[in-house]
Amino acid sequence: PVKVFSNTGVEKLFVVTTDYETGSYSTVNLTDWSTDNSIGSIHSDAVAQYYRDKIYVINRLYGDNIEVFNTSDLTNPILQFSTGALSNPHYMAFLSEEKAYITLYGETYLLVVNPSTGDEITQIDLSSYADDDGIPEMSPMVMLNGKLFVAIQRLDRNNNWAPTDYSLVVVIDTTTDTVIQEITLTGKNPIAMSYNPLIDKIIVCEVGSYYSIGDGGIETIDPTTYQAEGFKVTETTLEGNLAGMYNPIVLVNENKGYALISDSSWNTSIVKFNLDTGENLGTIDAPETGFSHSDLNLIGKDLILAYRPYTEATGIRIFDTSNDNELTTTPIDVGLPPS
Questions:
Q1: pLDDT band at 289; cut points 50, 70, 90
Q2: Nearest 5°: phi and psi at 134?
Q3: What is the pTM of this model?
Q4: How far apart are CA 272 and CA 280, in angstroms?
Q5: CA angle (108, 211, 45) in 5-degree steps
Q6: Rounded to a whole number, what is the distance in angstroms from the first to the last CA of the chain?
Q7: CA gap 8, 121 in Å, rounded
Q8: Of the candidates 156, 155, 149, 178, the residue with the CA atom closest to the CA atom of residue 167
Q9: With DSSP H G I counted as helix, E B as strand and the rest as coil, what are the percentages for the chain, rounded to 5?
Q10: What single DSSP character describes residue 312?
Q11: What average pLDDT is seen over the chain?
């Protein structure tokens, strides 16, 4: 996915790219849109996160490791450490430069490490939240005021990864590393989660079943009362399943947002919505066919899209959110297709 180096004064994008057989990473200079492509090799299934001038590349299933880069020199990682064979690391959440949490999609415990050394600090047992297959499928996380919010999908991997009876978010006190609250979600299969300071809410994207439109939506959680507040925008209104490799929605202000969706034929598009009213405000980009839209991010008023169609040029596209016009005439080439 496209991730930014910082929230203000952003100069570059760090872009994870893949053709699903090999993986690489590139950068885009936001001043002149020049690129440094295919800087190095990473796993073909990877995501990246930024924390305090470092990029953490999470190499997922069969990679099962974390690579750490200084933003001042992206040529080679300064550290690489394993998360365990077949552990399938999904997300990291940082308490400090000495303590971070890693969700493991193939394990029953949340891994706690020192991200500066890769050394394990402890494991937090979440096996009690598993469904009948024995794995809880923990994935996105939010760190907020010393509390860690961990999404538990509870998918049945013995039944084509179908959602089970419920999904939830558990809240962990990072002082004691113990679960202090359980939040049952309105929908199932939370694929993304983020904190938005504009509304002081945690936003959860719940897709439900990928084979059914109408069982998911965008929900908010009050981080103070630990209450799930129901769907603010539904998949029915968006006319598709929430999609995206890492970040399927962005909010421009308290109400206006953009979402990646996939219709019943797996064609993707960007839809604008109003979080307050739940309205669909229209489609701003919809190629004719294919799962083309992979990830969204927002820098200032610019909407950044990782775009990877099968029959056209792939790359980074940029839209002006003040009028929804595309600023790029052709996708910015970043080597392999961006994820």
A1: confident
A2: 90, -5
A3: 0.95
A4: 6
A5: 50
A6: 5
A7: 32
A8: 155
A9: 0, 55, 45
A10: S
A11: 95
| Range 235-260 average pLDDT | 94
Long-range CB pairs of 314-318 (<8 Å, 24+ gap) are 314/338, 316/2, 316/13, 316/15, 316/28, 317/285
Q: How far, in Å, CA of 271 to CA of 257, rounded?
A: 8
Best CA proximity match to 214, nearest among 191, 230, 237:
237
Report the alpha-carbon distance of residue 192 to residue 216 in Å, rounded.
12
* 17, 290, 327, 332 from 287: Cα distances, Å: 20, 8, 17, 17
330 token code pair? 């052709």
Residue 192 has pLDDT above 60, yes or no: yes
Range name among 5-9, 130-134, 194-198, 260-264 with the lowest pLDDT average: 5-9
Q: What average pLDDT does this structure show over 314-338? A: 97
φ, ψ (nearest 5 deg) of residue 122: -165, 175
87 has a pLDDT exceeding 60: yes
